[in-house]
Write a structure and sequence with these properties.
By secondary structure, this protein is mainly α. It is 84% helix and 0% strand. Helix 1 packs across helix 4. The mean pLDDT is 82.
Length: 74
């Protein structure tokens, strides 16, 4: 089974950003939250690249929001 990791990350980030409870669940236990979201029960080491990618994407989008806030100050 081959998945498009980038597309999967984009899709999952979108779902997490729309659902604060799910995002909180991801922050507490990312692997368990991904298993819930995807319905896949994979070993942690196989889900870890997705976790890393999602965290990076969420951090980048959060940074973008903060930068927009700073622009409004000046």
């Amino acid at each position: 089974m081959s998945i498009d990791v980038k597309a999967t990350i984009e899709e999952l980030v979108s779902k997490l950003q729309k659902d604060p409870a799910l995002l909180q669940s991801f922050q507490k236990d990312p692997v368990k939250a991904l298993e819930q979201l995807t319905g896949m029960n994979l070993p942690d080491e196989q889900l870890q690249p997705l976790v890393t990618g999602i965290k990076a994407k969420l951090a980048a989008s959060g940074l973008g929001d903060k930068l927009d806030g700073l622009k409004k100050l000046f």
